[in-house]
Design goal:
Layout: H1 2-16, H2 22-44, E1 46-51, E2 54-59, E3 64-69
Antiparallel strand pairs: 1-2, 2-3
C-alpha cells in the first residue's frame, strides 16, 4: 500500500507543478546542447564552451585552449521567472 500511495503522490505533485523546475529544464536542455555541440564540432572542427570557470575552445582532436576566465556574477540568491 505504501508504494502505491507514494506513486500517486509523485504523480499528483507532477500534475500540480505549473512552473519549470531546474531539474526539468536541465533534463530538457542537456540532450539539445549535446546534439548542437556534436553538430558544430563536425562542421567547424571546434566548439567554444564554459568549463570549470573558464571559456575554452575544444578542438576535434581533444585539445583544449583556455580563452578567458569567467568572472563571478553577483545576483540575488533567488531568481523568480514569471
Amino acid at each position: 500500500m505504501k508504494a502505491a500511495s507514494r506513486k500517486n503522490q509523485g504523480r499528483k505533485a507532477k500534475q500540480e507543478t505549473a512552473y519549470v523546475t531546474k531539474r526539468v529544464l536541465v533534463r530538457a536542455a542537456s540532450p539539445a546542447f549535446r546534439k548542437a555541440s556534436s553538430e558544430a564540432m563536425a562542421i567547424k572542427g571546434y566548439v567554444i564552451k564554459a568549463e570549470n570557470g573558464w571559456v575554452i575552445r575544444e578542438d576535434k582532436d581533444g585539445t583544449k585552449t583556455k580563452i578567458s576566465q569567467i568572472e563571478a556574477v553577483k545576483r540575488p540568491a533567488k531568481i523568480v521567472l514569471d
